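Project outcomes to date are best conveyed with an example. Our students and postdoctoral researchers have been running inverse folding experiments weekly, and each run begins with a structure described purely in tokens. The record below, which covers 122 residues, was selected by the lab manager from last quarter's runs and is presented without edits.
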């Protein structure tokens, strides 16, 4: 069956459901109509509340992402400025200090080894 046939069939069912509801309302009178209106209002209110919750959650997630992006940009800018300022003051970067610490550790180990060898030779 084609999509056009499906649409026609479903449209006809919707039309028949509407006629059936109208027929039931004539049989039940205005009380039945008011009950349907009340149920429709409740349904609409509940769905509207859910839509608001989903929209709020979505907006909150979007704001969190934007806040994180802003914080990342601020952090990068701060790091660059601190690094630049330290460079102008002649203070080495962290990576330079780490390299120097590694060299100092190796030199200390070499001196300890030499001192031990001298002690053993005495």
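After processing, the design step wrote out the following sequence:
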């Amino acid at each position: 069956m084609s999509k056009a046939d499906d649409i026609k069939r479903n449209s006809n069912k919707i039309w028949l459901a509407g006629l059936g509801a109208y027929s039931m309302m004539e049989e039940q009178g205005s009380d039945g109509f008011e009950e349907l209106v009340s149920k429709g209002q409740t349904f609409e209110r509940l769905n509207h509340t859910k839509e608001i919750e989903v929209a709020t959650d979505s907006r909150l997630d979007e704001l969190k992402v934007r806040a994180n992006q802003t914080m990342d940009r601020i952090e990068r800018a701060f790091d660059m400025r601190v690094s630049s300022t330290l460079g102008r003051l002649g203070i080495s970067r962290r990576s330079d200090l780490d390299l120097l610490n590694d060299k100092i550790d190796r030199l200390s180990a070499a001196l300890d080894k030499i001192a031990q060898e001298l002690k053993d030779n005495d």
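The chain has two domains: 3-91, 92-122. The helical segments are 3-28, 30-88, 94-121. The training component of this project remains on track.
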